[in-house]
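User: Hello! My lab partner asked me to get a predicted holo structure for this protein. The small molecule is pyridoxal-5'-phosphate, SMILES included with the sequence. Please write out the structure tokens.
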Amino acid sequence: MEERFYSRLGRSLKPGVIARVVLAAFEKARRGEKLISLTGGSYDPESLPVKEVEEIIRDIPPEDWRGILQYGSNLGSGRLRAELAKFSGEVGIEANAEEIIVTTGSQQALDLISRILLDPGDLVIVGEPTYLQALASFRLYGAEIETTPIDEEGMNIDALEEKLEGLRAEGRNVKLLYTVPSYQNPTGTVMPESRRLRLLELAEEYDFIIVEDNPYGYISFEGSMPKPIKAYDKEGRAIYLSTFSKIVSPGLRIGWAIGRRGFIEKMALAKMNADICSDGLSQYVAAELLRRGMAHRLIDRIRRVYREKRDLMLESMELHFPEEAEWREPKGGLFLWVKMPTGFDADALLDDALERGVAYIPGSNFFTDPSVRNYLRLNYSYPSREEIAEGISILGELFKEALRH
Ligand SMILES: *Cc1c(COP(=O)(O)O)cnc(C)c1O
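Assistant: Hello! Below are the structure tokens for the protein in complex with pyridoxal-5'-phosphate.
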């Protein structure tokens, strides 16, 4: 299609670093070479619940099939929402089925929330570095983004308060704050309880909505999930998002949002415009995975698998990475966040890494200021154990060479 036909939005859509890496992998595969991908947040291929889903689908009685194959509710299937209410209760979130909407992954929840809350020029605060795809949704609806730093314990609340005060002095009020409080993407940090409570107080004081995105909380390597902000939320300040993508299967595209009933109904109206309702078969499978206790067993299993892969990646990094590299052991989630000395250019080195058969995500992709180039994000959930060892050794060699120049 000729460029002039595209809308402003259409023109603005360009392939990012992930697309570049996928292209490189495709190119390599065509030449019969392989690429070790330490990039996205894909599920461990060996652990996908193939048997469980097969079993559920085999058992579906004809009357249930008729429901599955029909249009469903724009809030999501009643069965699944009832299971999700129970599932959320287990992590301290008191919600009934009317306060839950099923979405096509959390990504759709972010899109629907942006549609119903954000006018052009509205102010959104995010911790930096942060998840790119969330920012993309907010920006799509014309939001202005302000950032506040992420430190070792997640969003720095003192810095946030200063920021809010500064903005208020300029006559600018924040409408929405986006946070991933547990095993944040990309840094892996966890906000302690005190910060979670203080954040809720600030939301009252400065009158904004908190969007709590929690795809990783279930993947904790030491003990249970850190208690979500939503579990402390008496005033209905927080909208809670979670998803099956990191704990059960990303391909099912099952996400959910929890909020006040009126807000959830508004989201459902926006969902009518987006896709009418979520996929019937996926929702049925998700409800059964929960009802049969399979989801819980999958979570236990994947936590063990990822913990072991994390340990393997950490060991390989100790062995092969240059001593200037800095990182912290993530206590959960899917990623390792690495800091290199100033002057190191993770963006420029990606092509060399791809040439040698390894892909990673340059850290600049998580900053609103893309000139920050001395970080990188490594994923350990998707690659095999052999690939982790080999990939880290190749990267270590490359980074050492780069630092010696
Ligand atoms: C992976 C991820 C999601 C999940 O997106 P889905 O649409 O549910 O697959 C949401 N938020 C963050 C921060 C993520 O890293």
